Amino acid sequence: MAHGSGTGASLADVAKLAKVSTQTASRVANGSDAVRPDTRKRVLAAMAELGYRPSFAARSLRAGNYRSIGLSMSGDMSATGRRYQLEGITTAAARQGYAITLQQLADDAATLGEASRRMVSLPVDGQILYLGATPPDFATFEPPQALPTVIISTQHHPYCATISNDQMGCSVSIVDHFIQRGHREIRFVGGRRESYANISRQKGWEQALRMRGLHVVEPLHGDWTADSGYEIGMQLASDKSCTAIYASNDAIAVGIIYALRDAGLRVPQDVSVIGVDDSLVGLIPHLELSSYRFNDAQVGALAFDLATNPPEGKEPPHILVPGTLVERSTVALANR
Amino acid sequence: MAHGSGTGASLADVAKLAKVSTQTASRVANGSDAVRPDTRKRVLAAMAELGYRPSFAARSLRAGNYRSIGLSMSGDMSATGRRYQLEGITTAAARQGYAITLQQLADDAATLGEASRRMVSLPVDGQILYLGATPPDFATFEPPQALPTVIISTQHHPYCATISNDQMGCSVSIVDHFIQRGHREIRFVGGRRESYANISRQKGWEQALRMRGLHVVEPLHGDWTADSGYEIGMQLASDKSCTAIYASNDAIAVGIIYALRDAGLRVPQDVSVIGVDDSLVGLIPHLELSSYRFNDAQVGALAFDLATNPPEGKEPPHILVPGTLVERSTVALANR
DNA sequence: TGAGAGAATGTTAACGTTAACATTCTCTCA
DNA sequence: TGAGAGAATGTTAACGTTAACATTCTCTCA
Known about the structure:
The structure is a homodimer. By secondary structure, the first copy, chain A, is of the alpha/beta class. Chain A contains 11 helices and 12 strands. In chain A, strand 8 (244-247), helix 10 (250-262) and strand 9 form a beta-alpha-beta unit. In chain A, helix 1 (11-18) crosses helix 2. The radius of gyration of chain A is 27 Å and the shape is elongated. The termini of chain A are far apart. At the A-B interface, helix 4, strand 1, helix 5, strand 2 and helix 9 of A face helix 4, strand 1, helix 5, strand 2 and helix 9 of B. Strand 2 of chain A pairs antiparallel with strand 2 of chain B. The structure holds a DNA duplex.
């Protein structure tokens, strides 16, 4: 009885049909050159006839590894960023000849402990945990000692390697970009207050302003949509002191720009705007939005590396991957 | 020597430490209730002490299956649609307690044969092949007999189950929607001519028009971007006979709408526009674009079902999953 | 107290593969 | 032709688990 369709043949079956030992059949299966051409041909023919499929289970039982990395995700895997990180992981895996064992968790089971508990019995040599920004058991989680574990998280963890986009660095880059162009009052328009991305971007913005000795004006908040950005843009349009706006995603940035223009202001001549995610390329006519682009592919690739080659030291590493500010046409020199 | 970190313990080690047989240790590992509480406790303690991790390889060698489905992808996994299908697959898998073994192929290795050849030696009970629209060896590919194989493709295959979004159905829905609102001349604005999505949507549009006895005007083509849509919109604005435009993606639709408005026409009062993908929700202020939304989650879920429960019959099934037209505010009754 | 039943635990063998070693074959060269 | 070398092929054992069966323990009840 074999895997899959239930009719598969083993090497023993192949060997019997080809009138050789299983070892010789194994040698053919693994491309050893210590087999005479006619013997090889006979074995190959037997394999084809029986539809032989090597048993992954038996092979890895012998080999002691799986050449696969586990990845646990929860929630919306197609959210911006997430999907590129997933792509970064699978691409790095493909390059090393690894497969990815993907495990989707229902939102109500999305804890590090549960993800890890399930992954432990799957065929993986290491695991990457990519749940929400901060899973409920983040602080108390202890990784299984037999499985190198990497958490994609902006926070440092006592036992596991962690990696994520540098949210604070994003804010610093944007604030500095504005400052270098003469802006002094740099507004922050966040998304939903409670979201992790919002909190850390806002914190970064505040810190950057303080570090540079600039005034921190009360931030405003939308709900990540363009319409909420539009409303906020209308408020900001009447505020003459506002020359630079850091919108915490692109949709809000677009909303703000449309509102400012509807209110008779020019972007970027009167007000400069920068968004985050660089998610609008080619989507909106005649809008070249300056935006901060995270390097999600690299986050994924490094997470994979950490899982396959766990670093030796006592302290687990915490890696923040910087992105880049893509300069387009919505930022100008401050003119007042 | 164990899997992963190379220090793991086997059930035999656990059993020795707990002073029981491996079978009793196995019973504890599998939650059998035929173990005395104090024995169970001793075994559990030994497991914890040794960091015991069950061997997937040994278990599936015995069980004869893996409870995992292989998924081969190539190219941009984050493209619209693709990611939702991936999500559909993983969600269905999670519900059944299956894992997904994801294999990313480099574009130059993205043939069905190569994907399948590699997957055959991974721990999967079935496979889903999701490469481009029509991989180069689509016609000649023969699936391994030991591995139920599903191809995500708009085309029928002689040996494998196939499934995809109903691209033709999309066109029919959109054309009928326009017709029901009195439109007679329904224009098609495609994306890149050679792309599969473009070809099949255009074909569906032509067929639907012919079926309804309507005039087929020469289609126009952009490159999927909003800017290309804007250019085409400017051409269409001067054509008084044009009251209904089927844009083959949302970005082009947006470009067209902006151009029409800049040319002094009203959308939808003067010209109605429908896009495809429903990808703009919340992204553009004050634009409620009617758009055809594919049911990617269902495509993924059904692909998973086909891979786990291959249908018996002689002819492999070919499933086209219908989407829905999401009516918003860019379609009105024809007024001329 | 001692038989008997049923619960708890143990032993054996097998899943399919391949490393390590053992044997047999084939060919070359004196 | 026959020894010897090296190529080709074969045998054995082990990876870790668990089903099937075997044995031992524990408790109840006459």
